[in-house]
Write a structure and sequence with these properties.
The chain is α/β, with parallel strands linked by helices and 317 residues long. Helices cover 40% and strands 16% of the residues. The strands form three sheets. A five-stranded parallel beta sheet has the order 3-2-1-7-8, with helices on both faces. A three-stranded antiparallel beta sheet has the order 4-5-6. Strands 10-9-11 form a three-stranded mixed beta sheet, with helices on one face. Strand 9 and strand 10 form a beta hairpin. Helix 2 crosses helix 4 and helix 5 packs across helix 6. The longest helix is centred in the middle third of the chain and has 26 residues.
């Protein structure tokens, strides 16, 4: 049987941090076990290279580009990525384009800078994963779902609409805490309640753009089309609330023929001699995976990441 194990899938907006390390090792060990047991395993990494985060990455890299041209850029504005890891990206762009981009409007320079920044970040991520001896077979780009002249997200929504799982309607206001994605308007909804979810889920935002969920459904449809009957996703604990709707989508797309098994990986608390480890200088807000592997060594890191069950919090000294 063919199994797709998707793990890590860190946003390409910076180097990987210790939190990603655990998902990487857990997913890899799980894939090793499945392969040993005779399954045909594909190890997959989903690159979130569409949407707001990568535009913020591009704007942050553009500042470092201007800095590389000799400008004083001052403090990095709130909301952009402050880490020094974008300095080499800025320098590479300056080396390639000189000051040409600095004279262009954002509409012109943004796609150029974004592509270069994502490519360089993915190079770093691949190298960081290799340092852990994690080598995905497939890197699947979210943007590819909307590129190359066909809108695979829209096509997926239409397939579900024909099966009666997509409709236009209003969502009731959420009970208790206000939900971030709730809007009081007529919208395109996926009938995830038909599969045991609490509410139906929006597929389009008010500006007509697709929700993350819509892209994720199209991505999982691609896995099914590639012939995988068994899908395993390894997610961080912060995505646990997303499991039911994704399982509902896979059930709807496959007529209950395929199964999505989501493994949740809890946080890693990093200590040194019992004291919490201070943040990384280069990354700005977190300790990178690479720093830990360089200090402790690959195999001890892999061992420690598997030392506790995936859904229990892990203290790593």
């Amino acid at each position: 049987a063919s199994v797709n194990v998707e793990y890590v899938s860190a946003n390409p907006t910076g180097p990987m941090h210790v939190g990603h390390c655990r998902g990487a090792v857990f997913g890899d060990a799980l894939a090793n076990l499945l392969a040993f047991a005779g399954f045909k395993v594909t190890r997959e990494y989903y690159i979130n290279d569409a949407g707001v985060q990568v535009d913020l990455l591009a704007r942050s890299a553009f500042l470092r580009y201007r800095e590389a041209l000799g400008e004083k850029i001052g403090a990095i504005p709130e909301g952009l990525y402050p880490g020094e890891y974008l300095k080499p990206v800025g320098a590479a762009i300056a080396a390639q384009y000189g000051d040409a981009l600095a004279r262009q409007s954002e509409t012109s320079w943004l796609p150029v800078v974004r592509d270069k920044a994502i490519a360089m970040m993915m190079e770093t991520i691949r190298a960081d994963l290799a340092a852990l001896d994690v080598k995905p077979d497939v890197f699947f780009s979210e943007r590819s779902l909307l590129m190359s002249g066909e809108d695979r997200v829209g096509a997926t929504i239409e397939v579900l609409r024909q099966r009666g799982y997509v409709y236009e309607g209003r969502l009731p206001p959420p009970k208790g805490a206000p939900a971030e994605d709730w809007e009081d308007r007529e919208q395109t909804l996926f009938r995830s309640t038909a599969f045991g979810d609490d509410v139906d889920r929006p597929l389009k935002k008010s500006d007509g753009a697709y929700t993350y969920f819509a892209s994720d459904i199209a991505y999982h449809r691609s896995k099914l089309e590639r012939g995988f009957g068994m899908l395993i996703d390894v997610w961080g604990a912060d995505h646990a609330g997303y499991i039911k709707r994704m399982q509902a989508a896979v059930a709807a797309l496959s007529d209950h023929q395929a199964e999505l098994d989501v493994k949740v990986v809890q946080l890693v608390k990093l200590l040194r001699a019992g004291e919490p480890v201070k943040m990384s200088k280069r990354a700005g807000e977190f300790v990178t995976l690479r720093e830990v592997v360089d200090e402790v060594g690959r195999d001890p890191v892999r061992f420690m990441m598997l030392f506790r069950k995936n859904d229990a919090v892990l203290d790593f000294d």
